Structure formats: C-alpha cells, structure tokens
Amino acid sequence: MKTIDLATWERACHYRLFKDLAHPHYAVTVPIEAGILAESARDLSISMFSCLFYALSMAANQVPAFRMRIRGENVVEHNAVHPSYAAPLPGASEGIFGYATFEHTESLAEFDRRRKAARVYKPGDPDDASQRRDDLIYCSSLPWLAFTSLTHAYGDADDAVPRFTLGKFEKRHGGLEAPLCVQVHHGLVDGYHIGQFVEAVEDICATLAEELR
C-alpha cells in the first residue's frame, strides 16, 4: 500500500472538489455480454456467478483508481483489493443474506474454491473482521431483475469501496447479456476509469471463455 502525494497528484483538485460533497458517489449500469463464457462455465460445472465475480475482481485490481481509498486526510492505493460479496445466510429463510470475504487470486479454480469455502457472516457480526477493512470490493447479484439502474447504500462520504451488482441474464442482440451496476466515489474514480474497468471485465470474460473451451 502507498499513500498518494496530494501535492503532486494530478487529480488532487478533482478529489477535493468531490470529497466534501454530501453525496460524492455515483453509479453507472452497463450490459455485459457473456454468452460464450456462460456455455464454457456450464460445461466445466463452474457457476456463472463465480466467473463474472472473478472478472470483476481481476478488473478492479487492474485499474489503480479502483484500489484507492480515503483514510482521513489521506488517499491510499492498495497493492491489491479483495472480494466481499452478499451470499445466502446458512440456516436462514430464503432471501435472507449475509456477507463473505476472501483473498483475491488470479486462478479461477482457486477463486471458485475460496468463494465456496468462505464463511458467511450475519450483517454486523462482531466476528467479521472484514468490517474493519477497506481493501475490498463489494459484489452482489440480483438474478431476478434485468435492471437498468441501481444505487447502493453507503456508510459516509469517505466510504470509497466500489460496489458491483450483476443482474438477470437475458438473450439480447444474438447473445446473452446481464446488467452490471458499478458504483464508486467520484473523488477517486471518474467515468474514464469506469470505462477502463468495464473494458477490462469484457476482455477477461472473453479470455476466460477461450481458456475454458
């Protein structure tokens, strides 16, 4: 992890402009095409969620802006960020969820294993150490909705952990698409960076599809 030098950082003026706004977060929803990846994953008994979750984690680590966080008066850039996601809470009624966190890995097979092995905690569980970390990305899925827009809840104006939500897959334009909502802190992430991120997600999905075939 490194601390960003605000005296020389070329985005420092943008950071200061957005940092003190009451609502410095914004969200963009885009369609992700993953039909070929879905077929390849199904053939190997890997869940589509694991594949796309892996692509999100890989892409977030490739774009420096998505690894930046606000800590008091400082901005830091983590060497790596790790996935935390909403998952069904064991023993609870259908639709009741908790949170699971695990360390990022560039191996899809290991990523899938870690996701399945991660302990799911109740929201606010004092034993969940991830609540005290900011080197995370938050992911969730709404497989029931092909939404066109979405916003997430945030803790405070300095909460800079990116939020990602995947929606329902539908056949469109001769392929299979799902909406992806990306919500970020504008003090650290501009639309240009979201463009880099989405391009990386699509490239990773295409590469994965070829590797899994």
From TrEMBL:
UniProt GO molecular function: chloramphenicol O-acetyltransferase activity
Signal peptide location: none
SUPFAM superfamilies: CoA-dependent acyltransferases (SSF52777)
UniProt-listed Gene3D superfamilies: Chloramphenicol acetyltransferase-like domain
InterPro entries: CAT-like_dom_sf, Cmp_AcTrfase
Pfam families: CAT
Protein name: Chloramphenicol acetyltransferase
